[in-house]
Sequence to fold (497 residues):
Amino acid sequence: MSELHIYNSYTREKEKFVPSVPGHVGLYVCGPTVSGESHLGHARPYITFDVVYRYLTHLGYKVRYVRNITDAGHFEEEGREAVDKVAEKAHLERLEPMELVQKYTNLFHWGMRLFNNAEPNIEPTATGHVIEQIQMIQDIIDKGYAYEVNGSVYFDVKKYADKYPYGKLSGRKIDELLETTRDLDGQDEKRNKVDFALWKKAPPEHIMRWTSPWGEGFPGWHIECSAMSSKYLGEVFDIHGGGMDLQFPHHESEIAQSTIAHGCAPVRYWMHNNMITINGKKMGKSYNNVIKITELFSGNHPMLEQAYHPMVIRFYILQTHYRSTLDFSNEALQASEKAFRRLWEAYEVLQKLTAPLNNTAADKELDEKVNRFCNECADFMNDDFNTAKVLANLFELAPIINGIKGGQIKQDALSAATYQLMLDTFKTYLVDILGMQPLQVQQDGKIDKVLSLLAEIRKDAKARKDYATSDLIRNKLAEAGVMLKDEKDGSVSWTIE
RNA sequence: GGUCACGUGGCCGAGUGGCUAGGCAGAGGUCUGCAAAACCUCGUACAGCGGUUCGAAUCCGCUCGUGACCUCCA
Fold:
């Protein structure tokens, strides 16, 4: 049995995973900024790290999963910005930050539920942790690595870099970063361009503001993650995840802040998922090429040929290793939809198969193959969460399962134990770890009764060779989104769109 | 400009030296009143050029191409 290895972005190597506290894992993932709707690109880290969370739990770790909500900062809502921020407006007409935050937080949660992402154990908000952030900033000032200018506080990166390996995570060299300073002369209050804000003074029109030792303002972008992760996971915790684009400057800054405040680097394993691209370009706000999650689910977007079920998106994401880029296209999503449908149906067939009672397999070679397919899944997950390979192996089982049902493979080809192993593998990997759910809505049984009746009438018609009637039933049901299938044994099954 | 990735069959995508994933699409076949599904068979691909090696998609070098980060960004 293999052991879990994780690719650590910090060392750029796969490392054996050993938690700092035996049996426990602290997992922190950068959450959404709730000033707008999440798009497909955002879905990737949340699904990726959901699987990480599920897998660690499966391995028996007690995981504390923390994912923040960034609800503080410089907030604008499309079409409601600038003007709304003017304080003279009547109160109810004004953009109320918490209203905005509430709206998009709810929408985010809605999306996460549909993706079947497990809820984090703690979902701290930045606005709820301003005190912790202020304390941390003060601590950094006291230690001489931050300075205050006109009500804002900046981190002294240059001083930090003299003593610590600033830029290691993102592969940046401090000297080069300092050099680029030249093209931006007159660079306001910072001592060096590389310095970043820990606290920003709030201009009069800024609506989100808190009192601090340095006047009214709001926390800088990076400090919230450091303050909240250390509060809930400790000064050193195991895994920090997020998108690759956050490596610099966000995560680099986190390391610097925490190193000064706590005297040690905060994270043991850094994990970064790659981007989703569209026509080869990163999907992102600045490229104006995003497809929002609501649009994906509804199909309401010029680039979408159809709506896509959340499980199809999830499957599509998990069919690729998380560190590879993943290109969006209707073709790819449609392929995923078909593929997932086939895989899930094989799983359902498997559950209905009558397992043999024999303890020995008639087809030893096949039996061994199936065992290998099943047992390899653990190795694949242990190899830096290779969900793509896990799915490939499950697909290998599909023709075997269908073959048994269809009679191409004899019932006793596999041993009873192997049947059970297949069942366990699907349940454990597809359902529990990859978090997949059926596309079909669970029916309450009434529909099934109606369909049974129709199937029976059709069966009678067929027996009388009244194909006009039997085809009418099938065609009309197809129009309604119900596919009837005549099985080999004379029974009829159906799937509902 | 600097730094770093990547370039796999029609499409999507695994793969860190030999055992040549997987999915979708396509072709042929079996089954079937028809249909759908399912099953069987079929593709020897790794940007180009050199090099290392008994042997490279996989290691090294160069060339070309694409992208990411350097500013808010999952």
Observations:
- The CA atoms of residues 31 and 68 of chain A lie 5 Å apart.
- Chain A has three domains: 5-273, 281-433, 446-496.
- Chain A has a mean pLDDT of 90.
